[in-house]
User: What shape does this take?
Amino acid sequence: MIRILNFLIFLVLVFPPAIHAQSESLQKQILEVHSLLDQWQIEDAERLTSTLMEKHSDMGDVHFLNGKVAFFKGNYEFASETFKRIDAGPQWIKDFVHLVEETREATSGFVQQESEHFVFRFREGPDEILVHYAKEVLERSYKVLGELFEYFPKEKVIVEFYPDREPFSRISPLTLKDIVTSGTVALCKYNRLMMISPASLVRGYNWMDTLSHEYIHYLLARKSRNNVPLWINEGIAKYFESRWREDKEFLEPIGKTVLTRGLDNDYLIALEDMMPSLAKLKTAEDVQLAYAQVATMVDFLVTTKGESVIAEMLSGLAENPEFQPVFEEVSGLDLKSFQKEWKPFIKEKKWDTIPGLKVLQFQFKKDRSEDGEEKDYSELDTQKAQDHALLGDILKSRNYVDAAIMEYQKALKSTPSFSPILHNKLAGTLIMTKEYSKAETFLNESLKYYPQFHTTLTNLGEVHLLKGNHETAADYFEKAIRVNPFNPFVHQRLITIRSKLGQKNREKLQVRLYQKLG
Assistant: This one.
């Protein structure tokens, strides 16, 4: 067992002056490696560690650095074996070794695929389908965001898909409660991107934009030497997360509503209260409000200074880790004045506060084999609405379709909140009675307020398919996949559409993707 030393004490008590000076140099190099890793300068840290290993292979501190670098490069087995050969030492080292072991165990059995700039790791099986779409998202992000931020990573970026929330919580600073409360399903940390598979959620989630969002965090950390404060880090990621698909709309109606409501009621999340993570805020509503605040602050910044201001700020922070002077130089305002001018900028947009609109909680499956049907009525605000919805489901299952429609209509009238769940239950039943126009009206209303609701996108695809609008139907089904690529019904419909349109190559591709679901 190789011991890790406490240099600050060991140098003074043990070494004579000549050796003391040599050891001070060694200590400085060891601390520099830690600093380089903190700054996400992994390649520089690796080069310095290799030099130290050549000269000091008998020192536990150097072996620890070697294992730490390996972890940041995604080599968990090597890191684990390295740490077994050294004395764990102080508690912070024990905690880090524990993290490595948890990560090694959670990723044991993962398989790997690569694209030009990314390495994808996942559990063999249905999650392989994520890689097909992730390659498109991230390779486009690499180009589009690289040009925006003037930074293109030289090393391939590791992306890991975890099958559900339990292993994800073990390899991250988030508890299971944090994940459920905040809806945090992805992270950029330890020099990689980590994401929970949308297969483990009832409705999936906007996982493709989320993937680009996390990649933005990666770019910010690498280019700025990890000196971007949390609030503007999240703001930049939120503001640009949909640019890979050439969409500049960065806030959904729910974000606009919670921000307008917060400004009207003088309830905002202070920037310092967003630390250490938005995922640690108390409610999902607070998380949405915080994202809306910081994203619109970035909107204010780029509107007044141009999008190039982000790359300029990142370059400045790489040279000077003090945020305030760098921010003042690029924005022309101190942070207090910036926030003061931001408020009227947002109020001038005159966004509507939509009555009854609320933040939808992510619904995790108890088991990934669940079919994903909406069976949890607790999201409906009143007991009366829940009762009518349950009765509607029972009647529908027994083919009393007209009676089910009446119950869903009663449920809609019984809840003060806008419910995309009820709108889809009613629209889906109207589709069964071939009342396509009525169904489309309810679905479009739901889509206007909740554009990423998987069931709405799927039902709109079905309506247009039944009406013979094949291209429009395909567009909605493709959007549904951006939220949940594990719904076999969507793939079946796309196979049918590609066949009807004579798109043989796209039909073959869709068949291959469908087959990955098992």
